């Protein structure tokens, strides 16, 4: 069964972009401060310009979408290459 790389990439990108934004927002709420903070600091080292801030919510969502879109697209592209129908 062939899969659609663009659709899979959009699905992965949408989910990861939303999760990056949500994790950043949750980390900014004082009651939940520190939730996923260590992981977000790793992402700050990977994604240039990303910080744990309100502006970082937007930057993280954009980077997360692009990163997961490319990863999802490549995954399905490779899957389709190995699929012998």
Short structural summary:
The protein is mostly helical and 85 residues long.
Average pLDDT for all residues: 92
Give a quick account of the main beta sheet: strands, pairing sense, barrel closure. Answer: none
Oligomer: single chain
* β-sheet strand percentage: under 5%
Topology order in helix (H) and strand (E) letters: HHH
Description:
With 85 residues, this protein is mostly helical. It has one domain. The protein has three helices and no strands. The longest helix has 29 residues. The termini are close together. Keywords: Membrane, Transmembrane, Transmembrane helix.
List the helices and strands and how they pair.
Layout (H helix, E strand, L loop, with lengths): L4 H24 L8 H10 L7 H29 L3
Helix pairs in contact: 1-3
Which characteristics define this entry?
85 residues, mainly alpha, 3 helices, 0% strand, Membrane-associated protein, membrane
């Amino acid at each position: 069964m062939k899969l659609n790389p663009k659709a899979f990439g959009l699905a992965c990108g949408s989910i990861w972009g939303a999760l990056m934004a949500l994790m950043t927002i949750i980390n900014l709420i004082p009651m939940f401060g520190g939730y996923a903070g260590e992981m977000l600091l790793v992402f700050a080292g990977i994604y240039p310009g990303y910080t744990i801030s309100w502006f970082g919510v937007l930057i993280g969502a954009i980077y997360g979408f692009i990163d997961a879109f490319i990863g999802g697209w490549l995954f399905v592209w490779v899957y389709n290459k190995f699929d012998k129908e």
